[in-house]
Amino acid sequence: MKYRDFGKTGLKVSEVGFGGWAIGGNEHGNSYGPTDDKVSVEAIHKAIDLGCNFFDTADVYGWGHSEELLGKAIKGKRDHLIIATKVGSDFYQGTGFQTFTPDYILYAFEKTLKRLRTDYIDVYQLHNPPLRILNKPETYEVLQELKKEGKIRAWGVSIFDPVEGLTALKIGQPDSIQVSYNLFNVKPAEELFPKAESVGCAIIVREVLANGFLTGKFEPGTKFETGDIRHNWPKDYLLARIFATEKLKFMARKNRTMTQSALKFALQNEHVSVVLSGAKTPEQIEENLAASDSPPLSSEELQEIAVLREKGFKK
After folding, report:
1. Where are any strands of DSSP class E within 128-168?
2. Any idea which residues carry the catalytic annotation?
3. What does the pLDDT look like over 187-228, one tens digit per residue?
4. Do residues 15 and 267 lie in contact, with contact meaning Cβ atoms separated by under 8 Å?
5. Residue 89 phi/psi, 5° resolution?
6. 20 to 30 A Cα–Cα from 27, which one of 1, 46, 62, 305?
7. 0.90 exceeded by the pTM?
8. Which H or E element spans position 236?
9. Helix, strand or coil for residue 90?
10. What is the DSSP string of 250-311?
């Protein structure tokens, strides 16, 4: 496992991190299918054994369950790990509506500490706040105060659109930005990534496997279970993702799987601090973490990918 600087925070993070969305389970219909808590804990332990020190979750994943599992799994190992989590969805009221008031953030923060069995958080992130929230300087004050008090070591924002990240950089000066970036979506690399690096802001990449499609394991007839977020996605969208992935399977080779190739693509961007890899089993996380030491994509492969993307992954 290779390690990278996490912006200007002084933290050193494994370049491949553990994404904790899936292990939250699908009881509330907002995750990736069924899970087994025992196996999830084994996956976390496997990640630690293989050198992963960065674990990202959110309080809303499984309505607290992902944080609870992570807290249980890292008992006795906490001091050697970097824990990142997120706040902003008020599932305590049974709605999940977005809430970013200072009072709510402080309330949710204390709940998170208890679930994770810790007295501090390494990276505390606003979870996909809308642009109107990001445009308000007061949005960030509670996070800055938590950092000043030593309750968090760094704070950041998790966003959808690069414009949101650029706004946060201008108004709030976060320590990190988390954003979706993968073979299908490279827009963040155009302006957001270099701007963030220029001011010492770490970049956390999520959805590097494009909701699992870039593993290459799905076929046109694949059925997603009720409770899996992909179950209700439009069929045309699912098929487009599957067919696009088929065109990228040339990346897989004897010493680099399709999954590892997708991870490696993101890792080869010099602006990236850590790439999150979601996993539900020890076998999945072992394959994902091995991407750190897998062969890089060649210039010819990167060029072929660029041509395919320009054509919309169509013939």
Report:
1. 152-158
2. 61
3. 999 999 999 999 999 999 999 999 888 998 888 878 877 777
4. yes
5. -110, 115
6. 46
7. yes
8. helix 235-248
9. strand
10. GG-BTTB-HHHHHHHHHHTSTT-SEEEEE-SSHHHHHHHHGGGGSPPPPHHHHHHHHHHHHT
